[in-house]
Amino acid sequence: MGTQKTVWDNPAEIIRHLQPDHPVMAFAPTVLQDRARQFLDGFPGLVTYAVKSNPDEAVIQNLVTAGIQGFDVASPFEIDLIGRLAPRAARHYHNPVRSRREIAHGVREGILAWSVDSRSELEKLFEQVPTQVDGQGVEISPRFKLPVLGAAYDFGSKFGATPDLAADLLRLAAERGYVASLTFHPGTQCTDPIAWESYIRVAREICDMAGVRARRLNVGGGFPSHRVVGVEPDLQSIFTEIADTVTECFGDDAPALVCEPGRGLCADAYALITRVKGVRDGTDVFLNDGVYGGLAELPIIGNIDRIEVLTPQGKPRTGDRNGRVIFGPTCDSVDRLPGELALPDDIAEDDYVIFHGAGAYSVVTNTRFNGFGAMTRATVMGFE
Ligand SMILES: *Cc1c(COP(=O)(O)O)cnc(C)c1O
Which GO molecular function terms does the record list (predicted)? Predict the structure, then answer.
């Protein structure tokens, strides 16, 4: 389709010129770089990018250009990707369960920061990971969890030690000569700073229980993107709350802070352009993309309602909006978006439905199930 070579003004221009029949992910590098600078200027510590949310090379390259100097990696593939695209950047291997082969890969690659949430996995690290690499101390960060608060999705059900166990792991790592730090991940799409506050308070308690001052505190990802029209994320107030809570809990002896946003950095830099295959008997809308494609996350964390509908000539549909059921293209009945979405009454076959803020957990989880999912990429100056 030639979508790779050109920079378009906006999604409407792509629609007018190409009338694409497959889903297109429109990426705005300037939006990504602006968001990265917002984190770099506002967050009171080191900003690392959680690669899993969108590992597109263009994303990594634009983040490096904007000044991002660290990455949260979870697999040998992601370690190598960042080693190739950002060779000077820090790589934090923050997947708390790894095979011995994966640990060996991280050691060969000179990984300096590891997370852990159990005694068994800590033992594996002790066996394989040196305490120093080229004169630099190697960090081990117990990851702890609390009951979920304020998150759209419960990350604690898979990873994270209880505070008691985290205190044991912190002490053991320190005794063994590693740089002992702490990490947590409050969940994803956390719009309320309370999600971080309670974790930071418990981090202080864990340090007291262990009798160890954590060198760094990684406050995870979870920073929200703009998914719902009326709820614009307020990143600066979250950054301020994090800084204030750390000062309140740790005083002058505060650990250096790190964050590892995925969604909060990449999501709003993309819009997903889908096409209407049919409006079944004037009611249900069938799109050429759905939960096996770029909209995989919606049944898990809720709809994106920042939606525009354009004609094949790129003109906005302006009819009154009413709730419609939206289905994806596959023959699987789970391939539908949750609830109903408000779409203009004059929506018609061959129109385009644009989902804004769709850059996280979408490009990377797209499948070819049932022969659909031939997603392409395009670069845009912006979204208006
Ligand atoms: C997925 C993940 C992140 C990023 O989460 P977002 O909600 O996309 O910001 C950060 N840290 C860890 C450990 C993760 O697993």
Answer: ornithine decarboxylase activity
Do the domain assignments include residue 1? no
Parent domain of 340: 7-26+268-380
- In the chain, the number of structural domains is 2
Atom number of ligand 1 nearest to Cα 52: 1
| Pocket of ligand 1, beta carbon within 6 A | 50, 52-53, 72, 94, 185, 188, 220-223, 260-264, 360
3-state secondary structure of 310: strand
By most ligand atoms within 8 Å of CB, the mutation choice from 51, 52, 223 for ligand 1 is 52
Mean pLDDT of 358-380: 96
Instruction: Return mean pLDDT, the chain.
Output: 95
258 shares its domain with 112: yes
Residue closest by Cα to atom 3 of ligand 1:
221
140, part of any domain? yes
266 is catalytic: no
Q: State pTM to two decimals.
A: 0.95
195 closest CA partner among 154, 141, 247? 154
List, in order, residues 6 or more apart from 154 with CB less than 8 Å away.
148, 187
Cα pseudo-dihedral 188, 194, 199, 204, rounded to 10: 150
Looking up residue 291, the CATH number of its domain turns out to be: 2.40.37.10
